Amino acid sequence: xxxxxxxxxxxxxxxxxxxxxxxxxxxxxxxxxxxxxxxxxxxxxxxxxxxxxxxxxxxxxxxxxxxxxxxxxxxxxxxxxxxxxxxxxxxxxxxxxxxxxxxxxxxxxxxxxxxxxxxxxxxxxxxxxxxxxxxxxxxxxxxxxxxxxxxxxxxxx
Length: 157
Ligand SMILES: [Fe+2]
Fold this sequence. Notes:
InterPro entries: DPS_DNA-bd, DPS_DNA-bd_CS, Ferritin-like, Ferritin-like_SF, Ferritin_DPS_dom. The chain contains 5 helices and no strands. With about 160 residues, it is an all-alpha fold.
């Protein structure tokens, strides 16, 4: 049993999953900061609704940042914890100086679409490794965020 970790998953699978989850974590961190920026910088007639909505979304992203990091620890690995690493690991880019409400919402939409794609990859890898814990977490996030994508698209008309 020496090739399994504390929760009975093969070490090789756990390493691969941790690497994938660290990339996901990096994207969450960059996206979180982008949404925080939209919350601060948005201007115009939709200010009050968007300012409030962005706070709701970044608060949820921050919760998931912690959950993803702690899943990596549960798998027996270390979560990335430096912004310099996040910037180099993430496919979501930093989105600066966005003020127009619709542009902010488009940035949020794009970020969620990227997270969903990455989480489908996590889900597939976790399923192959019989890692129900990681698969369930990814599945929950995908379901929630797909609904958010629908709502963001409805907002954009
Ligand atoms: Fe605020």
